[in-house]
Design brief:
This protein has 298 residues and is of the alpha/beta class. The chain folds into two domains: 212 residues, Spore Coat Polysaccharide Biosynthesis Protein SpsA, Chain A (Alpha-Beta Complex); 72 residues. Helix content is 41%, strand content 19%. β2, α2 and β3 form a beta-alpha-beta unit. α7 runs antiparallel to α8. The longest helix is centred in the last third of the chain and has 47 residues. The radius of gyration is 27 Å and the shape is globular. The N and C termini lie far apart (117 Å).
Length: 298
């Protein structure tokens, strides 16, 4: 089989139909499959993907774990189920907007065996699908990029297509990070570079249920630090000059955040202590004095 579309989804009932419609509309001249890892959602996502599979049994395969296994385990299980020579990735809350996406990217990899993956630009939309940004890929990444470049930032997952069967196993540490796509891109680019195709093919959605986009600075710093430490293990000494300063930078960012947090706590405690002091004094001053016993002698 030429290609597998890898989709992971969890609690995406509002978005998954649009994601699947964007895949099914693809204009291709080769066989492809859609492999969906549905991670035991608590909403109607599983029912929706099951209905799509019923309507397209020759195209869609479902992985339906009997309990929630987490995003990384879901991704790896779905990745291992992909049979195509190429794999295109998509998460259930994003969608493809260009019906030629798969055809163009597969042709690029066919014609350029030196590349292990390719990617495009994409737009950014909000929860309701309203455009909020025309561009997601920064100008510095709109070119052929290497593993070294990816240590600074990964291409948008929803636009990536890569050669399958290059990675047999993942280190156990991968289950401790959030942005597994960056780690995957670094593993893939051990075998070659990633080519950029100058086109916008998809829409990345920012919404309240997103795993990454709306988390706090502390959460992002922790996970960016963790993945850079893992990349140091993966890349050995090749990119230490890049990764060591980045690790130090994220440590410093976390220390700054914690210092700010301690300052806020200190200010709060000082204010609470002052307010309590005022409250006690207010009650004391507001009480009526007891009348003196006895009186003046007549």
């Amino acid at each position: 089989m030429k290609l597998s579309v890898l989709i992971i989804t969890y609690n995406h009932e509002k978005f998954i139909a649009q994601a699947l419609d964007g895949v099914l509309m693809q204009d291709v001249d080769f066989d492809f499959e859609i492999v969906i890892g549905e991670d035991f959602s608590t909403d109607n996502t599983r029912q929706i993907v099951s209905e799509y599979q019923r309507r397209h049994p020759d195209k869609i395969r479902l992985l339906l774990p009997e309990k929630n296994i987490g995003a990384n385990r879901n991704f790896i299980a779905t990745y291992r189920a992909c049979r195509g020579a190429y794999v295109a990735m998509l998460e259930g809350d994003d969608f493809w907007a260009d019906p030629m996406k798969l055809r163009v990217q597969a042709a690029f990899l066919d014609e350029n065996p030196q590349f292990v993956m390719c990617f495009t630009d994409c737009s950014v939309v909000n929860e309701d699908g309203v455009l909020t940004d025309q561009v997601r890929v920064p100008e510095r990444m709109k070119r052929t990029i290497s593993q070294r470049d990816i240590t600074f930032g990964t291409p948008p997952t929803l636009t990536v297509m890569f050669r399958n069967h290059l990675i047999d196993s993942f280190p156990k540490e991968i289950y401790r990070i959030v942005n597994v796509d960056m780690f995957l891109s670094c593993m893939l680019t051990e075998f070659g570079d990633a080519g950029y195709i100058d086109n916008k093919t998809a829409c990345y959605r920012v919404h309240g249920g997103g795993i990454w986009s709306l988390h706090s600075g502390e959460y992002r710093a922790r996970n960016n630090l963790q993945i850079r430490k893992m990349l140091l293990m993966l890349c050995g000494s090749k990119h230490r000059d890049v990764l060591v300063p980045e690790v130090a930078g994220y440590y410093q960012a976390l220390l700054s955040l914690y210092r700010e947090e301690r300052m806020l706590i200190k200010l709060f405690l000082n204010y609470a202590s002052y307010a309590l002091f005022r409250l006690r004094n207010h009650r004391a001053f507001g009480q009526k004095r007891r009348p003196r016993t006895g009186g003046l002698r007549s």
